[in-house]
Write a structure and sequence with these properties.
Number of strands: 0
Shape: elongated
Oligomer: single chain
Largest sheet: none
Number of helices: 6
Structural class: mainly alpha
Order of helices and strands: HHHHHH
Distance between the termini: 61 Å
Radius of gyration: 21 Å
Length: about 110
């Protein structure tokens, strides 16, 4: 599978991914990770020639990250992390008081009028 085919395939997985996220959200409390096994896996991967594909890896990571950036906010909503999506690029926190002007907003507005 080429990288272009992979990115196209990712586009086709939106509805499947949403269903999976819902299922994972329900069972997330049961998941646990073994830190020792995770550390051993990272060490093993590091010894297998990590320097060989650094440039290609960075390019592919950028492509995948750019593909996921557009749906990051939707994923946060699915897993209940919205509006605290600090990991999403260019995320702007929505107004916590829509339609109501707070004192800080009023004072800033008055300063702008002068």
């Amino acid at each position: 599978m080429t990288w272009d085919e992979l990115l196209e395939h990712m586009d086709n997985l939106v509805s499947w991914g949403q269903d999976e996220l819902k299922g994972w959200h329900k069972t997330a409390s049961a998941l646990q990770f073994d830190k020792k096994a995770e550390t051993a896996l990272v060490a093993l991967k590091g010894k297998q020639g990590e320097a060989a594909c650094v440039a290609a890896d960075a390019t592919h990571r950028a492509l995948v990250q750019n593909k996921l950036a557009g749906i990051c906010e939707d994923m946060c909503k699915e897993v209940g992390a919205y509006p605290k999506c600090a990991q999403c690029p260019d995320f702007v926190v929505p107004d916590s008081t829509p339609g109501v002007m707070t004192w800080d907003e009023l004072l800033e507005h008055m300063d702008n009028l002068v």
